[in-house]
Amino acid sequence: VSYVFGAFRLDPVDKALYRDGAPVAVTPKAFDTLAVLVECHPRLVTKDELMARVWPGTFVEDNNLAQYV
After folding, report:
1. Is the peptide bond before 12 cis (omega within 30 degrees of 0)?
2. With contact defined as beta carbons under 8 Å apart, do 33 and 68 qualify?
């Protein structure tokens, strides 16, 4: 399953993001953050849910999450 939005295609299986068919370089955590938001669309994702899915079992400060969002 891949997700298409605008000029982008997100492939969660291959952990790849494409824009107009060309790969876009993103860090692993930025990709994971985007994947959660895209997969949950249009539902609102809480900060706690996002942190639990992107950084499971790890304490993360709010500024780390803000950097990726």
Report:
1. no
2. yes
What DSSP assignment string belongs to 7-65?
Answer: TEEEETTTTEEEETTEEE---HHHHHHHHHHHHHTTS---HHHHHHHHSTT----HHHH
Max intra-chain CA distance, the chain:
36
pTM to 2 decimal places: 0.87
Q: How far apart are CA 65 and CA 54, in angstroms?
A: 9
Mean pLDDT per block of 10 residues along the chain (69 residues) reads 96 97 96 95 94 89 82
Q: Which of 22, 23, 16 is nearest to 2 (CA)?
A: 16
Partners of residue 9 on adjacent β-strands: 4, 18
